[in-house]
Amino acid sequence: MMKIFGLLLVILLVFSELVNAQPRRIIHIPNIESYKTLKCDFHMHTVFSDGTVWPTVRIEEAWNEGLDAISITDHIEYRPHSIDVVADHNRSFELAEPLAKQSDILLIKGAEITRSMPPGHLNVLFIKNANLLELEDVTAAIKEARDQGAFIMWNHPCWDAQQPDTVRWWDEHTDLFKNDMLHGIEVYNWEFCPEAMRWANDKNLTMLGNSDVHGPMDVNDGHRPLTLVFAKSRTIGGIKEALFDGRTAVYYDNTLAGKSDFLEPLFFASLKYNEAPLKLKNKESKVIKITNNSDVDYELELVQPGVGFDAPELITLKAHHVSALNISGNSDEVANAATLNVYYRVKNLLIDADESLVVTFSFRNN
Fold first, then answer.
1. Measuring CA to CA, which of 27, 61, 86, 342 is 20 to 30 A from 134?
2. How far, in Å, are 120, 161, 164, 246, 271 from residue 249 at the CA level?
3. 211-245, pLDDT tens digit by residue?
């Protein structure tokens, strides 16, 4: 027993040295208003279900990629390595927790209840004891998670292995929703799921985007799908409160999906530009230099310019660049306008499956 303990201690120290030696990426997504924007992934697996990595590797990856919080959600019902990896359902969390604390990664205790459709696969976060979820009746298992205080989300509803013909909301999901056993839904997993986003808006479900990673994580060319959590504090309790309150956005492939209440302040918090009066007149042009301090290239399409002036039809505010917005006066009315308002659709900020956020730039003119 002492030899095993010593071996585990050596492994932990080795991983600790790796984490401390690795450069840590910074994800530049701003805080908004009174909330901290936390970068999170609430769906991943290890060798304790059908993944291929040790639990501490998930902490190392999260550290390297600049994440704030993760949850290891190994399957309760599906454990193909169980002949070689013999342990209970809490073991992956227990192994990862010491390194998470040392690395300042918020590790949320979770699991995946894995059943056929309906209701499909559901992640349960903030649980106390995963072993108690190993029940034959799926409703009883979900109820047990709820009674442990879990936040419960429906995973990958667009997955064609479970819904090959049509993506539908089942009566079983209605029953779960009505009985406080369904709180969120993955809008993005392996792909964007438009139906999930519509249901999230219609039923006020929390939107989530996660990696569902099984093998080693490789994000050299970008970033993993993330859930942005707008939390009052950078704590596990702060994340839990925010998830139950629906304060999230989904970040994937240079796209953000979420409620306008969060996307609009996040968009403007990313930008900096001179707020001095333009003093624009007819037949004059003014250049407004806009700095985008975020990691997102914002793709803007003109919806409506103001009265008396013209603005570009299309403009991309590139991440970590300064972009020029040219405003041209086209009538005498512009000189008398106290404020110039120009309206753009931000094509890669989704507030519904087929609807993008419209923002208003207001420039003082006098």
1. 61
2. 23, 26, 27, 9, 18
3. 999 999 987 767 999 999 999 999 999 999 999 99
